[in-house]
Amino acid sequence: MVERLVVIGADAAGMSAASQARRRRKVDELEIVAFERGHFTSYSACGIPYWVGDVVDGPDALVARDPKTFREDYAIDVRMRHEVVGIDLARREVTARDLDNGGRESTVGFDRLVYAAGAVPVKPDWPGVDTAGVFGVQTLDDGAAVREWVDREKPARAVVVGAGYIGVEMAEALVRRGVEVTVVERAGQPMSTVDPDMGELVRQAMDGLGITIRTDENVRALSTKDGRVVAVETDRATHPADIVVLGLGVRPNTALAKEAGLTLGVTGGLRTDRRMRVVDADGVWAAGDCVETVHLLTGQAVHIPLGTHANKQGRVAGINIGGGYATFPGVIGTAVTKVCKLEVARTGLRESDAERAGFSYVTATVESTNRAGYYPRAEFMTVKLIAERGSGRLLGGQIVGRAEAAKRIDALAVALWNGMTVDEMLSLDLGYAPPYAPVWDPILIAARKTAEKLER
Amino acid sequence: MVERLVVIGADAAGMSAASQARRRRKVDELEIVAFERGHFTSYSACGIPYWVGDVVDGPDALVARDPKTFREDYAIDVRMRHEVVGIDLARREVTARDLDNGGRESTVGFDRLVYAAGAVPVKPDWPGVDTAGVFGVQTLDDGAAVREWVDREKPARAVVVGAGYIGVEMAEALVRRGVEVTVVERAGQPMSTVDPDMGELVRQAMDGLGITIRTDENVRALSTKDGRVVAVETDRATHPADIVVLGLGVRPNTALAKEAGLTLGVTGGLRTDRRMRVVDADGVWAAGDCVETVHLLTGQAVHIPLGTHANKQGRVAGINIGGGYATFPGVIGTAVTKVCKLEVARTGLRESDAERAGFSYVTATVESTNRAGYYPRAEFMTVKLIAERGSGRLLGGQIVGRAEAAKRIDALAVALWNGMTVDEMLSLDLGYAPPYAPVWDPILIAARKTAEKLER
User: Fold this and answer.
1) What is the ipTM of this complex?
2) Backbone angles phi, psi at A66, to 5 degrees
3) What confidence score (pLDDT) does residue A393 get?
């Protein structure tokens, strides 16, 4: 008997699951139907700021595989612009609405279901937030909308609300398009994903780009005129704006899942086991920005919407659906980005995370270079490590630098993943040659200094 | 009572040991005398090819700390141009010859001894090998000699014998100085430190630089005229040469140690324990290019002369001499270099190493990019992994690529160091953003393909 797999959301997570399931179970065993409410499949949402900033082409270049490829090469019945509006777990069927055909509804039965509906941008209920000229940035369709506004309206001034990854990246993109940008951030620093001392380095880089960064400032309302946004009102100032971009993060898009009776966790994301099966739901899988996962250092549930996790989780779900065995054990919070030429990377816990989790710790921060100091174009980088007092175990690392800095976080991430102590790290056999590192790599210099502090 | 530490060889290993010992034991406890037969202390030998190639300044820029700094800031009595010619373990004294003062000899007693005499270039007994115009490249003094010859003699044609790290780097350096270069290599590929398939990529890069590379060719003699080298005779051809550089590797400089009765291992290097104490010799330590160490994957003794190991081993010796506790557990064979813009990196075992050690293994080779494919200046890289059949444990990794490729070896090295399987690696939380990686980092793509091969 042919089984049917229904996939809700045809982006990274959903289509990784579908492709992997197809790899292991051919058409005569498994029929696959995927519903996507947007215009694009399997795209790089992370590429949107670079598209808006004219650094990369779009939207097609950002699509890893298009619907035609999935249909022809994977025999997956991808239904674009179809929004799933209901899941009936008892009857094993979903109801989808065809957005391009007057919302005509259809019902499709399933044996197995993958819920991969992604995330939705956080949108506060500020007065004026629904006015023209105010954008969230989550989907390629959102990216297209921002681009169209910039091309057509030629805004002179932008306000970006939120100085996290998307906020900072969009600020840089808009500066590249010749817009004067102010970033308003509630916290005391930009890029709260790193510690305040490292965030200060990001602030300096944003200053250098001509971005005005206003921290410790809360938005109260958006002012409008003739149905368009004209300013952002905060508790401290009025910032004129011809375009407003909301970079306030996203939340799991799980309203439909909740309605169907699937189990949500404390973060609002779907709870799954290590094989990406939704807990207490037979034959239902979930992956991507709509699920919560485990932080391996704290054991706590976290919602970390990143394309890299979505791809891995989707792959794991698909392998398991296909009859194989694969697991996604959790995350350690690795992330990298750049602000102009400044590279910013982190893994593991920040100081505040470590405190909250009850760790006693020491930190050490060092400055070194990406290459031997005497080698041409050696550039500075700052490396900060956090290690547990007593055990000496690495708890977190942060790197801010000018070149070849961000991806050094990977060696730290693998060390941390394996529970290494900073003392053990000092023996690590890392690559050394003058064009690539000082004889002590910056991360080893940081480990040395951390180990010395632990000794005291 | 004040103890005296004598250090033989004031380069990376010796002076790391001396500095660490000084950190922990002040002048009133420990007197430190260091003998150096050359003109420089603590220099980057790895920088020599870049100095010869006019990429970096030298020689002073290559010196991390000069004798004056050691004397004034570390209270270390550095005696330059003093060659130690005898060690008497029973009487606890060394005899040194002052090379700049007619070889006047002096004797200094010691309580503890660090042997850090480094390595000497392999110099075959080919006829003509001692002629003017033939150079090894090991010390800064060697580097200065090559530079002087190039500046003064303006050689039109060079032959580099040996296509390992130093050979390839010197070939590139000489091309940069306008010399026509032929590299003669006994093996069937350049850069035998990587597998033949990866070595082929290096060959292509060398071709692209205009370097003539002759593999499977054995040197028989060097032809001379008027006391100068004029050609290299091999078993297959005569290669005219106005300068010949020997890049045949180095061997531990342990003649003096052997004469004194210290224990040498199978590689000819000094045998030490994990704390860098020479085995069976009370109060004698050794570090750097003169020692052998353990390959952690095979358990075999290996001689891997690299500045990064020398620094670590010296530090470990010094901490232990100073009353602390530190160990150097061994190496996994990580190394990186570049050939023009081609980055070459390796860690762990090659296929031939794995075979020799008795591993059954699978390999997978993938091509991917350093950045998201759609991001500007995305460059290709090739990643090859070797994993043990059955256990799935990573045994080795090799990377050849155009940009931001070589240092990706570090994440592999840390994974390998921790005994990860390629399957476990698939869950690794590595840094992802379009400017830094595709959503699946090249090393994860390689791990996926290797895991798939293991499944079969």
Assistant:
1) 0.96
2) -95, 170
3) 98
